[in-house]
Request: fold
Amino acid sequence: ELKVEQNPLFLSMQEGKNYTIYCNYSTTSDRLYWYRQDPGKSLESLFVLLSNGAVKQEGRLMASLDTKARLSTLHITAAVHDLSATYFCAVDGGAQKLVFGQGTRLTINP
Amino acid sequence: NAGVTQTPKFRILKIGQSMTLQCTQDMNHNYMYWYRQDPGMGLKLIYYSVGAGITDKGEVPNGYNVSRSTTEDFPLRLELAAPSQTSVYFCASSYSYGRAANEQFFGPGTRLTVL
Reply:
C-alpha cells in the first residue's frame, strides 16, 4: 500500500528566509504532484514531476523529484507572505489514482 | 471554460438522510474522481471513473455510490448519511494520455455536515 508522508506538518517562518518541505513515499512511482490550498478553498496545481531528477521552478518555489530515494522536495526561496497556504504532495499510485500527503501548513510572518 | 463545477457548496443533513453531490466538467476529460478531505488532513479517494459507464472504488468507498452516464457528469450519492461522512468533498478531472502530465483539476468543493 502506497503511503505518502510530508514533513514538517506545520511551518512558521519569517519573510525573506528559505525553507524546504519534504515528501517521502513508500512504493515506486515516477509521477508526483504538488498542490497549494488556501483556507476554505480548492486545490491549485503547482508542479508535475514526471521523472527521476525532474526539477520545476515557478517564482520563489522549486520542486524536485528523486525516484530512487522516493523523495520530493519543495523549496521556498526568500519567502513572502503571499506564499502562506497549505501545500500537499500527491503520488500516482497507479491508474492515475493519487495518494496525498497530510499537507504542510505554511505561515509566513512579516 | 468553467472547469470543474460542484453543487451544492454547503449542505447540512440529518443522520439517515440521503443526497447527491453533483459534479460537472467541461474540459472533455475522460477521468473523473471524488475525494473527501477531513479537517487538517489530506485528500482521500472515494471513487473514480476512467470514462462513461466505468467506475471503480478508491480508498474509502463505503457509504457512497457513483455513476457516470456521460463524459461531463460524475454524481456522488450518499445513502443513509452518518456523522462520519461530515467532510469537504472535492471532485476532480484529468486527461489520460500516455506520458502527459495528466494533472487533476479540482472543483470548488462541497462542505457537508451530518448532524
Summary: Residues 24 and 73 of chain B are 5 Å apart (CA to CA). The interface with chain A takes residues 31, 33, 40-45, 48, 50, 58-59, 90, 94, 96, 99, 101-109 of chain B (CB under 8 Å). The radius of gyration of chain B is 14 Å.
